[in-house]
Structure formats: structure tokens, C-alpha cells
Amino acid sequence: MHTPLLHYLDHRIALYVGDLTDHAVDAIVNAANSSLYGGGGVDGAIHRRGGPAILDACRAIRSSLWPDGLPVGQVAITVGGELPARHVIHTVGPIWGRHGGAEARLLADCYRNAIELAASLGLKSIAFPAISTGVYGYPPAEAAVVVSRTLAAVMREQPGITQLRLVFFDARQFDIFVAHQQFSD
Ligand code: ADP
Prior knowledge:
Elements: E1 6-8, E2 13-17, E3 27-32, H1 41-50, H2 52-64, E4 75-79, E5 87-92, H3 103-120, E6 125-128, H4 140-157, E7 163-168, H5 171-180
Parallel strand pairs: 2-7, 3-5, 3-6, 6-7
Antiparallel strand pairs: 1-2, 4-5
């Protein structure tokens, strides 16, 4: 069911097409909104399949760490509930055109902060959706440049992350990413 279609960085990064919630990794990353109370897209899929334990954990994070919501680019970790993944790392991607030119930096922050949090907890495998490229409107070709460059740098600093998966919902998004990635520049 999970066949990687392409690898980069000595096989530490693998690309897939399919449903992120199928992936049995130490953590999947949620493209959440700052409320952490669930939404559409991949966020909805994660809460539907993971069950109420994830929402309970998100509510606890809101009342303890982030009463005003999770800021763009920041991360928070919860249980995986009934998902095959052990944990969910929630992050909030930038909305395209709403951050005065800081969109690329904020998108990079999502990936970097998720990886650094996973590594700090001793997690080894992590799977990402294409953050911000859905309702948040980030052009997927531009996201591919930012994400691949960020991952190339961060993965060098984090040898403990042995397996990073990028999961695209459909073949078109995968193709755009492959055409525009700059892993080896
Ligand atoms: P955002 O609000 O950050 O744009 P979305 O969930 O709308 O988040 O979209 C992010 C990306 O996740 C999009 O490319 C969308 O096609 C994709 N996506 C939606 N559902 C899933 C899923 N179940 N598995 C993997 N990717 C998904």
C-alpha cells in the first residue's frame, strides 16, 4: 500500500501519493488552523480517523500553552489516537498573500519546527502533507522550492530523523513537486 515513488537525500526522504492518515510513522504532521479545533482538508481527515483523543489533547494545549491559538509556523504535539501514527504534530501554515512577503519563511518554519520537535523527542520517522497548498492557497511550485531547500538544510542538522515522508494527495501535486524541488542545489 505504501510504495515510495522517489527518494532524495540518501533515501532519508521519500515521496508518496495517497492519504497521509494511512502512514504508520512516529508522527504525522497536521496542516491545522490556529484554533487547533479541527477543520477541512487533511486536518479533518486526521481528526476523523484519529478520533476524539486528538481533539481532547488539542483543547488541553489551547488552555495551557497557547490560549490565543497556535501561531503560524509553530508546532504542538498530541497523541495519534486511533491513527496508525503514534503522534500528530500540529502546525499552522501561512495563508498565501496574508503575511506581507513572509510566507516562505513561515512555511519553512512549519517544516523546521516540526522536525526539530520530533528529533528532540527521539522520534525517527515523520510524514508531512503539502502544508498550505490547499485552502491556504500557497502555489505548489513555490512551496516545492521552499520545502525542498528547507529539508535539505534541516535534515543535515538532524541525523536522528532517519525517515521523512512527503505525502501528496494526488499525482498532479506530486509531479509539480518533483519538477520544482531543489534538494540538491
Ligand atoms: P492548508 O489549509 O494548509 O492549505 P489543506 O488540508 O487544505 O491545508 O491542504 C493541504 C494539502 O493537503 C493539500 O495539498 C491537500 O490536497 C492535501 N490533503 C488533503 N487531505 C489529505 C490527506 N488525507 N492526505 C494527504 N494530503 C491531503
